[in-house]
């Protein structure tokens, strides 16, 4: 596939984000200087607020700052960086460390508009972080240690102290913000007086991206056939759209509703390797549609290409889930979305999870970062266990064969985190009030 100048430029930006560091930022800015434009818009990066206290209480409140597609689905920023951090100090954090973190994050808020053209981010804390304290988290927060969620996965469990997730449509913004937190550059012209990395250390750095056409431009990696089968209009490597607003919980719904961490949420983040050589070689379009959505989607022609035509809902209805035993017997397979939908609703029909997953080619390997937000980690675990399909009664549907997409994904990491409300985002105590 020959890349257009715009595609080549976007590929360059993705590579810069994945590499990170001052040299990547410099190369990114030099390329902008040559073209006279940034990746998404000409002109300077929009500045943030004078007083960070004016920002919304919920760190996970992103949707008001994001554009929507023609169907009302939120469009996530194109570039993502996940920084896994450990606090340099042992034991309870000092007030000096807490003030350093608060100052560094406030500098980001003043430097960058909270939008897809600026910077949208959140900081979250693990169960291991809260183990530093004698006090326990309040009953309003359920934050267990991460664990295996199927009999066949062997993930490395993420127990780092904190996770900083930064995103923007502009590659130069996420790179510059990261370098500013390290004390190497200014943040959009604003001095970082107390760099975050004065009190934390890198444990891991992962990167991601999402957007129509981006996976097709980046499919020359391990795990994808040489034939480059990823559709040009697909936002995800498996060739279908996801994140339909009708199947997503609202930000308000996933917010903790009482206690000191009210207006915060819990976050599960899995990193998943994908084996798409088999996905595309062993299955035709109809079979991929059946395994991703349901056999009914294929029979009724609900998906014509990448799923954009579904609008604001995946098309999986209660009738689709109720028909799953019949589908297993008749078609010899069941759908991924079909299985998940069984557990992803409360008694009133509201979705439980808010998913913000993005693709990755870290280490030149096709993979997926899957952040899920929910009031309670137990809600995510129940939905994920429904994905295992252990209750499907059909000789053709086995543990990882004809069982949704399980045959093509391999969990590399799992981590659980608390995303505090903004007022407690700087090294919070378990009982801050």
Account of the protein in words:
The protein is an alpha+beta fold and 433 residues long. The chain contains 13 helices and 10 strands. The protein has helices spanning 5-19, 21-35, 95-111, 127-130, 171-181, 214-217, 276-282, 285-292, 295-299, 318-322, 324-331, 336-341, 377-386, and strands at 79-87, 120-125, 156-157, 162-168, 200-209, 265-274, 354-355, 358-360, 367-374, 409-419. Strands 3, 6, 7, 8, 9 and 10 form a 6-stranded mixed sheet that branches. The chain has a 4-stranded antiparallel sheet with strand order 2-4-1-5. A hairpin with a 6-residue loop joins β8 (358-360) and β9.
Structural class: alpha+beta
Shape: globular
Radius of gyration: 21 Å
Fraction in beta strands: 15-25%
Q: State the distance separating the first and last CA atoms.
A: 57 Å
How confident overall, as mean pLDDT? 93
SS elements, strand count: 10
Q: What string, H for helix and E for strand, traces the elements in order?
A: HHEHEHEEHEHEHHHHHHEEEHE
